[in-house]
Amino acid sequence: MSQTERQMFSAIAPSVRLDEWLQLRQQHVAYEQKATSLREHLREAQKSYDEVSPLGVISKLFKNENEKRIFDALKSNRDKVADDLSSADAEIRRLEDCIRQRSMDFFRQAMNKESLEYIRNTSLPISHRVRQSLEKMTQDVQRLINAHATAQLLSLARVQEHVTNLISAYQGWTGQLNEQSERGKQ
Questions:
Q1: What is the DSSP letter of 16?
Q2: Rounded to whole angstroms, how far apart are CA atoms 64 and 154?
Q3: What is the enclosing helix (H) or strand (E) of 83?
Q4: How far apart are CA 48 and CA 54, in angstroms?
Q5: CB 8 within 8 A of CB 124
Q6: Looking at residue 55, what DSSP letter applies?
């Protein structure tokens, strides 16, 4: 990564350290490679174990002492590789969670006003793309606001029409009650 990119990263999200993020990525890659190797080793260990004990633990009952030691060694090796793989997979998940959290922190900071202004006003290659994206987003938001405002005006006109009809109906109904009341008094 160039020095310019490092400076931009630091300016956009000062609390997210680029070196830590890159180190997490390197560790993740290393553990992915380790897990791939362990998966292959586990397949081989399982195959060796299955050859010696096609019936699993029951096969041990029919073995002599020397064969039982081989059986135990193969089972122990298979179990150790399986445990190592499980640990590697757990570490991969932990690293992915850390990377995800760091990425969220970076994007949260990158979306604040100061960071966006910095990106927009620098002469970096990303600045042009950010300006285009912000302009498009502004246009999209304006279209949404206009569509919402139009829908609200139409809805308000319908509500106003219904309120007017209700007022007329109420006045007509109360007028009839008043006439009946006047007739009843006579």
A1: S
A2: 90
A3: helix 65-110
A4: 10
A5: yes
A6: T
Rounded mean pLDDT of 11-24?
Answer: 84
Q: What are 80's two structure tokens?
A: 């150790």
Nearest partner of 18 among 112, 99, 124, 123, judged by Cα: 99
Read off the pLDDT of each residue in 152-176 and give the average, rounded to a whole number: 88
Q: Distance between CA atoms of 96 and 102, rounded to whole angstroms?
A: 10
Rounded Cα–Cα distance for residues 181 and 175 (Å): 10
**Domain ranges within the chain, ordered by starting residue:** 3-122, 125-186
Say how many residues make up the chain.
186
Residues contacting 68, CB < 8 A, separation 6+? 60
What pLDDT, on the 0 to 100 scale, is given for residue 1?
Answer: 67
pLDDT tens, position by position, 68-107: 898 889 999 999 999 999 999 999 999 999 999 988 888 8
Looking at residue 160, its pLDDT comes to 95
